[in-house]
Specification:
EC 3.5.4.16; hydrolase; binds zinc ion; elongated; GTP cyclohydrolase 1; GTP Cyclohydrolase I, domain 2; two-stranded antiparallel ribbon; 206 residues; one-carbon metabolism; 5-stranded mixed beta sheet; GTP-CH-I_C/QueF; 2 domains; 7 strands; binds guanosine-5'-triphosphate; GTP Cyclohydrolase I, Chain A, domain 1
Length: 206
């Protein structure tokens, strides 16, 4: 069975350009508020460096994410799934501005076309380049895959280590958060239900 694909660019909102001068000036103030001398040798270029990093982080260009190819699934009593796993994505938790290290597994059941494999990783990375929640990142990836694959059967599993839970606060070093988003044939009751729970249990197959 084939469905007509209407591939569009992914729905990652393009952030405005970062005013690096303003960001650097604010970091200079922050260093002063933290009791540092922003003019000392080791710190004098730090505000500009950090401002460059924010621009690199938030102005990330995911590149082309919707290349697809015609593909005939052999239907001799079989079926076909495509799953890319072990995609490591770095993001920032929006509550504490602390690092999140996430491993993503994402898959779909092709319906007449296959998506370029790298596009799954590009979509996953794109969602990391903003202040995030693990759950929102996962749902954004699932939404984009539903759109660009043209398939209703999509699943995403994410395992995350949150520095805000290890380097500060509760200090639950080693805690891993698992989230799973399943659609169509991957949803409960569907033929592939459970598959992503298995993948997630293995740490999104890292
Ligand atoms: N659901 C969800 N929560 C997150 C994520 N990242 C961080 N958090 C949580 O956001 C919550 C913020 O809680 P608050 O009580 O407002 O802040 P806090 O006093 O710094 O909390 P602690 O982290 O418990 O010290 C914490 O429970 C974090 O673990 C995420 O990706 N998803
Ligand atoms: Zn946090």
């Amino acid at each position: 069975m084939t469905t007509e694909l209407t591939a569009e660019a992914i729905a990652v909102p393009a952030p405005g350009r970062i005013d690096q001068e303003q960001v650097a000036a604010l970091y200079r103030q922050l260093l002063t508020a933290l009791g540092e001398d922003p003019d000392r040798d080791g710190l004098k270029d730090t505000p500009q460096r950090v401002a460059r990093w924010w621009a690199e982080f938030l102005e990330h260009d995911p590149g082309r994410t919707d290349t697809t190819f015609a593909h005939e699934t052999l239907h001799a009593g079989g079926d076909e799934l495509v799953i890319v796993s072990g995609i490591v994505v770095y993001s920032l938790c929006e509550h504490h501005l602390q690092n999140m290290e996430l491993t993503v597994a994402a898959g779909y059941r092709p319906r007449g076309r296959v998506l370029g494999l790298s596009k799954i990783a590009r979509i996953a990375r794109a969602h990391g380049h903003r202040l995030q929640l693990q759950e929102r990142l996962m749902n954004g990836i699932a939404e984009d895959l539903l759109k660009v694959s043209g398939s209703p059967d999509v699943a995403v599993a994410v395992t995350g280590s949150h520095a805000c839970m290890s380097a500060r606060g509760v200090r639950a070093v080693g805690a891993v958060t698992t989230t799973v988003s399943v659609h169509g044939d991957f949803a409960p009751g569907g033929p592939f239900a459970g598959l992503f729970l298995d993948l997630a249990a293995k740490g999104a197959s890292r």
